[in-house]
Amino acid sequence: MNLRFEEEQKKERRIRLIKESLRFLAAVVLVILLAWIIVHFALKRVAVIGSAMETTLYNGEDVIVNKTSYAVFKPKRGSLIAFYPEQKETDMTPLDDSSILIRRIVGLPGETIQIKEGRVYANGEAIKERYEFEPMASSGQANSELTLAKDEYFVLSDNRADMDDSRNVTFTKVKRENIIGKVILVLNPLSLPGGPEKNKEEEGQPEA
């Protein structure tokens, strides 16, 4: 009688162990699946091209872009965004990862943007930027007022001497449909994206 009881206990323990093992394996598979989904659909690794974003980001440096950042919320002024450049209708070359650019938003849809004496004005008022940038030697096409469409953003390089940004007529503005997402992480070494020296008036405020 005791022998049969012990056998039943052993059998129950084996069944319980198998169930716990299966639950553990299911949890591991779920974590791996979620990680795969996040990496492949929510995040994107992008290489910085050129010197336009120095000293914030450098040529060849890798960053992580959150592709879901603007699924609900709109891009904000001051944010670093990754985007595809605007293509001409006659340009049939498909865009790939080597085409992705990174710049900082300074002008929002519907605003009138102008650059005077090295400062950016939105709807006639000078904007307060979070970081101290080098003076802009040229305002480019923003020397005169530019009114952005409801789906357009005006972006600038952090290296303000580099006019590979919305000041350049050939660069133009950035359309909402071409924005991939927000730069959230810098790799090698691992760090959060920042900018040049912080503006003292803006220190302590959360990132946009």
Q: Major sheet, described briefly? A: 7 strands, antiparallel
Note poorly predicted spans: none
Strand content: 15-25%
Silhouette? elongated
Biggest sheet, spatial arrangement of strands: 1-2-11-3-4-9-10
Termini separation comes to: 72 Å
Helix content: 10-25%
Overall number of strands = 11
Pick out its properties.
208 residues, alpha+beta, seven-stranded antiparallel beta sheet, four-stranded antiparallel beta sheet, 20% helix, elongated
Characterization of this structure:
With 208 residues, the protein is α+β, with helices and mostly antiparallel strands. It has one helix at residues 2-42, and strands at 43-47, 62-66, 80-83, 101-107, 112-116, 119-122, 125-126, 146-147, 152-156, 174-175, 179-186. The longest helix has 41 residues, at 2-42. The mean pLDDT is 86.
Fold topology:
Blueprint: H1 2-42, E1 43-47, E2 62-66, E3 80-83, E4 101-107, E5 112-116, E6 119-122, E7 125-126, E8 146-147, E9 152-156, E10 174-175, E11 179-186
Antiparallel strand pairs: 1-2, 2-11, 3-4, 3-11, 4-9, 5-6, 5-8, 6-7, 9-10
Give a brief description.
20% of the residues lie in helices and 24% in strands.
